[in-house]
Design a protein that fits this description.
The protein is an alpha+beta fold and 661 residues long. Among the domains are: 220-366, Up-down Bundle (Four Helix Bundle (Hemerythrin (Met), subunit A)), CATH 1.20.120.450; 385-648, Alpha-Beta Complex (paralog of FGE (formylglycine-generating enzyme)), CATH 3.90.1580.10. Helices cover 23% and strands 8% of the residues. The strands form four sheets. The chain has a four-stranded mixed sheet with strand order 10-9-8-11. Strands 1-4-12 form a three-stranded antiparallel sheet, with helices on one face. A three-stranded antiparallel sheet has the order 5-6-7, with no helix packed on it. Strand 5 and strand 6 form a beta hairpin. Helix 4 runs parallel beside helix 8 (344-366) and helix 6 (260-279) packs parallel to helix 7. Its cofactor is Fe(2+). Catalyzes the oxidative sulfurization of hercynine (N-alpha,N-alpha,N-alpha-trimethyl-L-histidine) into hercynyl-gamma-L-glutamyl-L-cysteine sulfoxide, a step in the biosynthesis pathway of ergothioneine. Residues 230-360 form the DinB-like domain.
Length: 661
């Protein structure tokens, strides 16, 4: 996967290394001008610093366009050219005809004030100049042939400079629910992406103005971390969209997924809306495209029919937004309240792009065609993997569940609260392909005893006989993985199974899926100290020795890998490799408050969605928190989801071994 970086990681340090300049002396101006003429120029983009790279496939444009963020300048007057007056010299007024020798009386009123820089041709918000004032007599001199010839002007596109005018989409009518005037109705779709809503003005997200929970960290270290996460996300985005040709970018490879080009422009649109408009207070670059990339306006199945930006324009738009965001990051205080506390808004956008990178990787898995992604295989299982116990005991007791002290944690992870969990046993590693093949061989897909009523109906209606992308060649099970057909490795965790399939396997094995609280206690609780860790291994950020994260390997690692990432109870691979289905519905924590907008989590609460925990190999470390809560419909199989099973340590009244809390 060839990374395409939207800017060097030294972009922020470059500005800080510049010495303060109080203004050059008059004698230094010729030397500075000569130095500027000798300065190296960016290839294809003259006059720009080299740390803002041009996206692949996008041609260079004139100043003020999406490929050149220089503000257009006013032309200075040249005293040596006919028709131009010297700067600062007042033009002579012409006498009126018919009254020779009559002196002109001065006009009454105060003296004319000095012109403000805004009145000298620069737009008050920068970027686009005002038209130059009309000079007296210029049209008359042109008729006589004494004025300079007209210059050919190339008009720069407005507000970011996309190469063609964007069609204004037809507005989508919204119904207002009875009893709730003034708020737009949010339509529920089979799989709506986690996207911001729109208020009645359609221009800004609906914000909760309460202070952002959780402490923040200010200073250069936080800016460097934010810049690193933003640039890492953009490298992955560019790699996923740059490895295929334009037909694959604009095509819809499954009704469950968006075209890749929609995800690309949606990433830039969200970044512009939250950071440039809300944090920076900037005017919209292209408000006419907002409805196209609002996930609540259009379900995924409809998006290929929308007038989307072509790939080159989508890249130019996201590149323009990212350059302005990096400039905003340099000057924004990150120790305030609300969206700026601890850099929350920037961290939320970094997580949003990383989540769409996982979504685009799923699209690549659903795509049919030759393989375009290459990845090194994970390391073999360590030597002690075969000797690991089948399950670990989690004693009964209280623990603190939820996020506390995580400035970038999302609203559904809060608030931290005390939970009592009875004793239970949990699988040491996720269920493997080999174990799942035994379930298939034993007729697990043909016996309704192991399925819930809804699950059995779905199995029959969808014709499920094995995990998604599996096929049988005689006695050998094969799988298709990113365009390559290969034998199913028996020691890897099973992936691409629905919640119904995971629940049926657990019932067949005489066990159940763990609850969300059980999973988090096994991952975070430290029985030696009684405290709750940030990650299973401790409080240190994830590294390649701890977990399979960040799309380094496009497959799960063998079961029992990453002993350095084991929890205090001995369970392994709780983070990374595969998302793990739990037996819990997606419900709010006690004391939940929607922030910064209710449509991220609140509209999805209920029994329709099941919770997944732990992340997968496709998840970036910035998202791979032990408190992060994913959710989806129980029928979903295209996601990188697996599971592990649990059982009660002691029989509980009114609960069977296959039940789920």
């Amino acid at each position: 996967m060839g990374p395409l970086c939207a800017g060097r990681r030294t972009a922020l340090r470059t500005a800080r290394r510049r010495p303060p300049l109080d203004g050059p002396r008059r004698t230094d101006l010729p030397r500075l001008a000569a130095r500027r003429r000798r300065a190296p120029r960016h290839p294809g983009r003259p006059g720009l610093p080299p740390h803002h790279a041009l996206p692949a496939g996008a041609p260079a444009g004139p100043p003020g366009t999406a490929h050149d963020r220089r503000p257009a300048r006013r032309r200075l007057a040249d005293p040596h050219r006919p028709g131009h007056r010297a700067a600062g010299r007042r033009p002579r007024r012409r006498r009126r005809a018919g009254r020779p020798g009559t002196p002109r009386r001065p006009r009454p009123g105060p003296a004319r004030p000095a012109r403000h820089p805004v009145d000298q041709g620069l737009h008050p918000r920068g970027g686009r100049p005002r038209p130059a004032p009309r000079r007296r007599g210029l049209l008359r001199r042109r008729r006589r042939g004494t004025a300079p010839p007209r210059r050919a002007r190339r008009a720069a596109p407005r507000g970011g400079g996309l190469r063609r005018p964007l069609p204004r989409p037809r507005p989508v009518p919204r119904r207002r629910p009875a009893g709730r005037p003034g708020r737009p109705h949010v339509r529920r779709h089979p799989h709506p992406p986690r996207h911001r809503p729109r208020d009645d003005a359609g221009d800004r997200p609906v914000l909760n103005t309460d202070t952002a929970p959780g402490p923040g960290t200010s200073g250069d270290a936080l800016r460097e971390r934010i810049a690193a996460e933003l640039l890492a996300a953009r490298e992955r985005t560019a790699a996923l969209t740059g490895c295929v040709e334009e037909p694959d970018l604009v095509a819809q490879h499954s009704p469950l997924m968006s075209p890749l080009v929609w995800d690309l422009a949606h990433i830039g649109n969200q970044e512009e809306l939250w950071l440039l408009r809300n944090v920076g207070g900037r005017d919209p670059l292209h408000p006419e495209i907002d409805p196209l990339y609002d996930a609540f306006e259009h379900p995924r199945a409809e998006r290929p029919s929308l007038p989307l930006l072509p790939p080159a324009e989508a890249r130019a738009y996201t590149h323009e937004v990212r350059g302005r965001v990096l400039d905003l990051l340099e000057t924004t205080a990150l120790d305030g309240t609300g969206l700026l506390r601890g850099g929350f808004a920037f961290g939320m956008i970094a997580q949003h792009e990383q989540q769409h990178d996982e979504t685009m990787l799923i699209t690549h898995q659903l795509r049919h065609g030759p393989p375009v992604l290459a990845d090194p295989p994970p390391a073999p299982a360590p030597g002690d993997a075969a000797a690991l116990p089948a399950e670990v005991l989690i004693p009964a007791g209280d623990f603190t569940m939820g996020a506390a002290g995580e400035p970038w944690a999302l609203d559904n992870e809060r608030p931290a609260h005390l939970v009592h969990v009875p004793a239970f046993f949990l699988d040491t590693v996720p269920v493997t392909n080999g174990a799942y093949q035994r379930f298939i061989a034993d007729g697990g897909y043909d016996d309704p005893r192991w399925w819930t009523a809804e699950g059995w109906q779905h199995r029959q209606r969808a014709g499920l006989t094995a995990p998604l992308f599996w096929s049988r060649d005689g006695a050998t099970w094969l799988r298709r993985r990113f365009g390559t057909t290969e034998p199913v490795p028996a020691d890897e965790p099973v992936v691409h199974v629905s919640w119904y399939e995971a629940d049926a396997y657990a019932r067949w094995a005489g066990r159940r899926l763990p609850t969300e609280a059980e999973w988090e206690k096994a991952a975070r609780h430290d029985p030696a100290t009684g405290r709750t860790r940030r990650y299973p291994w401790g409080d240190a950020d994830p590294t390649p020795a701890h977990a399979n994260l960040g799309q380094r390997h496009l497959r799960p690692a063998p079961a029992g890998s990453y002993p350095a990432g084991a929890s205090a109870y001995g369970a392994r691979q709780l983070m990374g490799d595969v998302w793990e289905w739990t037996g819990s519905d997606f419900t709010p924590y006690p004391g939940f408050r929607a922030w910064p907008y209710r449509e991220y989590s609140e509209v999805f609460f209920g029994s329709d969605h099941k919770v997944l925990r732990g992340g997968s190999f496709a998840v970036a470390p910035v998202v791979g928190r032990a408190t992060f809560r994913n959710w989806d419909y129980p029928v979903r199989r295209q996601i990188f989801a697996g599971f592990r099973t649990a059982r009660d340590a002691e029989p509980r009244p009114g609960r069977t071994a296959a039940g789920a809390a």
